[in-house]
Every structure is written in C-alpha cells, then in structure tokens.
Amino acid sequence: MKRVYVNEKWCLGCHLCEYYCAFANSVSDGTNEKDMARALKDIKIRPKIKIEEKDGISFAVSCRHCKEPLCVKGCITGALTITDGVITINHDRCVSCYTCILSCPFGAVSPSEDGAVEKCELCVKNTGGSPACVKGCPNAAIVFEEREI
Q1: Which conformational region is residue 67 in: left (phi greater than 0), alpha (psi within -120 to 50 degrees), or beta?
Q2: How far apart are CA 96 and CA 125, in angstroms?
Q3: What is the pTM of this model?
Q4: How many helices (H) and strands (E) are present in the chain, helices listed first?
Q5: How confident is the model over 14-36, as pLDDT tens digits?
C-alpha cells in the first residue's frame, strides 16, 4: 500500500505541506474556495500533517497507516476503521475518549475543534489521488509511494 514518507534531509521546514493539507481539508469541508490564500485567510489552520524540528532537523509527523494500528484497536466505539489500508474516522461514532491519541506511538492523532479526533486520511475524500501535502512540497521531501517495510 502507498504511504506518505518524508526525507528529512530534503525537508526545508517551510510548513507548506501543512497549508496544502489544511486547504485540501477546508475544500472538503464545504468551503469550495479555489484560492488557498482566501480559503485560509484569518483562520487558524488545522493540518493533519505537522512539521516538527529537533536539533536542526525538520520532519513531518502524520499518520503512518500502520498494518496493525494501536489507535484502531484502542477505539472503544469503532470510529476508527481500516479501508483499503487507510485508517479513517467516522466522526459521528467518535465519543472523544481520546484513547486513540494515547495509543498512537507517532503522535499522529489529535483532537479536532468539534470534539472528535482528526488525523491524516491520505486525502482519499478530497483529492482522490496523491495527498495534498505531497503535491505541495516544493522540495519533493514528501513522497507518496509503496515501500518494502
């Protein structure tokens, strides 16, 4: 299965992937704005990928869509499911217990503004192809490919 991978040596720490992610998800949430600057103007962005920096190295934190995900196993309501290798959230079933947040060893699940949780879903609902963070990375540090693990 294809997944998002980050080459830390190429990451500039520019945070553009966060903006492309937030924009892709704002369009899927009904904004229907075609211009990223207008869609994200005056709002606090909530990207599902986050750039962190440690010891001068920038790297992206996002869901790794694990083969045996602890977040899905820990979800008491079944709000997290795996469909074609992609871990997705049913916001109607989430009761905000945050067990998935505590279970994720990568810190890729976070609370959303509506109380449910949010995480990267590889843009399957909004772009239908390559994730927006990959398309928007100016240095090609983020790739969407299949690798042997």
Answers
A1: alpha
A2: 22
A3: 0.85
A4: 5, 8
A5: 999 999 999 988 865 555 567 88
